[in-house]
Amino acid sequence: MRKITHIAVHCTATQQKTTSIASLKAHWSALGWKKPGYHYVVMPSGKVEQLLDESQVSNGVQGYNSCLINVAYVGGIDNNGKAVDNRTEAQKAALYFLLEQLRFRYPQAVIQGHRDFSPDLNQDGKITSNEFIKQCPCFDARAEYRNI
Ligand SMILES: [Zn+2]
Question: Rounded to a whole number, what is the distance in angstroms from the first to the last CA of the chain?
């Protein structure tokens, strides 16, 4: 097995009503990706879809993927395409349970959001909102999952 240093939490940044696993795969294949963006995708219903074996490398965070498990919830933008945390209660519960399972398999891995991989521009040891290269996953995953 690969060495997993982080479990990265994402949003798909797509509309919840119209996103399917097929539409995600079509998007990635249009980008020329041979592997999915995430190992797991949590649908608005709370259903968890596994797209890739954990031993394989997915395409979630450029430059870090070889050491990551990438998980995403479907959503993260409003009707105007603006970043928003619109996780359903079912998604929140399913995501939490999925991360608990991953924590069991990778006890050393840090759970954080995609945005927490942004460069620490002022090198104060914290990635603050002015340093985010993206909003993904649109909530503070480090804080929300710190007890997992
Ligand atoms: Zn992301």
Answer: 22
DSSP secondary structure letter of residue 46: S
State the distance from the centre of ligand 1 to the C-alpha of 107, rounded, in angstroms: 22
The CATH class, in words, for 6-144 is: alpha beta
Q: How far is the CA of 141 from the centre of ligand 1 (A)?
A: 12
Q: What is the pTM of this model?
A: 0.94
Alpha carbon dihedral 121, 145, 42, 63, in 10-degree steps, equals 30
Question: How many angstroms separate the alpha carbon of residue 104 from the centre of ligand 1?
Answer: 23
Q: List the domain boundaries for the chain.
A: 6-144
Q: What is the pLDDT along the chain (148 residues), one digit of tens a residue?
A: 899 999 999 999 999 999 999 999 999 999 999 999 999 999 999 999 999 999 999 999 989 999 999 999 999 999 999 999 999 999 999 999 999 999 999 999 999 999 999 888 888 888 888 887 789 999 999 999 999 9
